[in-house]
Specification:
The protein has about 475 residues and is of the alpha+beta class. It is about 30% helix and about 25% strand. It has helices at about 15-20, 45-55, 70-85, 155-170, 195-200, 260-275, 280-295, 305-310, 315-320, 355-365, 390-400, 420-425, 455-470; strands at about 30, 35, 90, 100-105, 115-120, 140, 145, 180-185, 210-215, 220, 225-235, 235-245, 250, 325-335, 340, 345-350, 370-380, 385, 405-415, 430, 455. A hairpin with a 4-residue loop joins strand 1 and strand 2.
Amino acid sequence: MIEKTQPRKNTLLRHDTQMRGETSRNSEVVQTRNMTFSPIADIDSEVVELVRDLIAIDTSNYGDGSGPGEALAAEYVEAKLQEAGVECERYETTSAKRQGVYARIAGSDSSRPALMLHGHLDVVPAQASDWSVDPFAAVIQDGMLWGRGAVDMKDGDGIILAMVRAWARAGVAPERDIVLNFFPDEEAGSRHGSHWLVDNRPDMFHGISEAVGEVGGYSLTLENNRRLYLVQTAEKGIRWMRLRAQGQAGHGSFVNTDNAVTKLAQAVAAVGDHKFAMIETPTVRDFIKGLSDALEIPLSFDNPDEILSHLGPIARIIGATLSNTANPTVLQAGYKDNVIPGEAEAVIDGRFLPGHDDDLLRTVQSLLPDGVTVEDRMFDVALESPFDVPLVKAMSDAIRSEDPLGIPVPYTLSGGTDAKALSGLGINTYGFLPLLLPPELDFSAMFHGVDERVPLEGLEFGVRVMDHFVRNA
């Protein structure tokens, strides 16, 4: 049994809010666009405990079906919802190990389309010997909760659970129907999760107009101490490609001018070294404007190095959204030291910006030498949703209710999420599971990284912001 933790006063906001005579948390009744919003006093009291419990359940997804699956985590989520009186369904997709949880919470206005909140229960594997702590022990130290899934994304699952359980305790109902779905298999492409459900359980998505999941709403402290909150309105598409080189098999001691391994090596080097053209999408343009305004300096897309110089470690994510990318990840060739194989293969992880999938493929094809072909291993769409909409206005209002100095800006995610499956149903998708982060934390390194961790205060902040947002969305 993991012991309960006590909620804390947020110190991450204390310095600059006190300097300006502002409070970091508004405990009074707030007038909002849709309703009078009254914060729930204990909304953040159990989020750390919930996230700890989820981290302690190993749901490592190896991508080949060999992992433990999500069943135990789904049972936990189901139990926590039922304990609070929330009706839900624990479901299987392609096997007994592949499980998730679905619920629909009735809102006060049945005429409005529903809003979906979604998360995934699986995590990428963790090599324990690389970590400072046991990656599945859910250790708390230095004001942080450590463990695999702490930011990707059992933190988000715990935030949603804590919010909904607090609603049940307080007898609060949202304005519109809220659909919850805790998906399996996101970390291996969602083929046994959200994609399968879209194809086989359309009832789960009936009447939903917008969906909110990972990765967005987290803070980025700039050099002038202004805080941006990055709302994910777009994400790159996925095009995993297989390169296949054909050549003449033969003895390793012979001269061979038709060597498949040599051809493949040339192709891999050409793709890996290629510098893709810069592409300014609407979301990238709006992000740059928001950053420029916050820093009070002119920034131009034509000078990407200057833009990235102001972003710290998050520059790794933002930098990857300024162009298409293609990185070699797997090489396979040969079966004996003295035999030249007749075939060699490589895998390329290609990511493309919205509207530029064909550009990526054409570029890769142009780089290949004779005798090397390319084919798709996996393809999934790029997404881009509007920023200037009421839903994002509700996100912005919620952020500022907790951090009056917060500046919401749109951004593009370089990776992929379950939102790809939902977009095929005509649902506008966003990443918004808010976190307040210490300026020194390398947040981008937490995703699939060693010593993944999340600040306790950030989790509690996230529940309060999420509650304000969802009840007014």
